[in-house]
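Example 3.2
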Amino acid sequence: MATWVYDGSFNGFLCLLFESARAGEQPEAIGHAGSGQPFLWPPKEARTDERLAKQTGDVLRRRLSAPVFTRGYYAFLSALKEREMSVYTYYNLAWTLGKSVDRLLTDPRVLPVHEASRAVLRERHRFLGLLRFTEIGGVLYAPFEPEADLLQLLAGHFSTRLGNEKWIIHDLGRGKAAIYAPRLWRIADFSLPEGIAPSRREEAFRDLWKEYFHSIAVRSRENPRLQRQFMPKKYWKHLPEKEPPAE
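Structure, written as C-alpha cells:
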C-alpha cells in the first residue's frame, strides 16, 4: 500500500483509480500533488490524461451502474473529510457488488458517500434560487461561497437559463469561476480585478429589489427561524435583499 497524489480534479482522480489498479495497489492515503503536505514516504503521482479519464469513467459506469458512479462523483465534490478515500472505498466495494452496494445503507463504506452526495445536491438546489447576479462591465457576475465544489453543477443550468448573456459565477473560497460566453463555458482560476464596481443602472435595480423585498414583508407574520431554514444565514452575505434598502 502507498500514498498516491493527483491534481485535485475528478478526471485526475479517475486516472488515479486506473493507475493504482494497474499497479495492483490500494492507496493507503490520497493527497494533492504540490500541496506541500508532508508524507512519510515519497508518494506515487497519477498524471491526468483526459482520454484515460473518460475511458475509466465509461468502464465504471458500466461496471458499477450510472447511479453509483454519479453518487460517488457528487460525494467527490463535497466537503466530506478525506473524500477521495471515501469515494475510492465506495467504488472499490461497488466493483464487486455492483449497484446492490446501495442497499448497504448502514455500512461505513457506503453511508458517508450517500450523506455527502445528498448534501451536495441539497446545496446545489439552494443556490439555483439564491445565486444573485450583478452587472459589472457588461458581464453578469455572481459571487458565492459554497461548502461543496458546485461550479460544474451550476454552470450547465445557467448556460441554458442565461444562454444569451455573458456571466461569471465566482467561487470565492476556492478562487475559481465558471466563465460563460454564449454557447461556451469553462472553469478556471479567477479573481476579480480591483476597482471594478456595479454600474449606476445596476445599483438602481439593486435598490429597487431591496425596496420591493422589504416592502412586501408582512411584519406581523415574520418567522426568522423558518426563513433561516429555507435560506440559511451563511448564504446571506451575497444576497442584496438582506441589505437595508437605500434611503
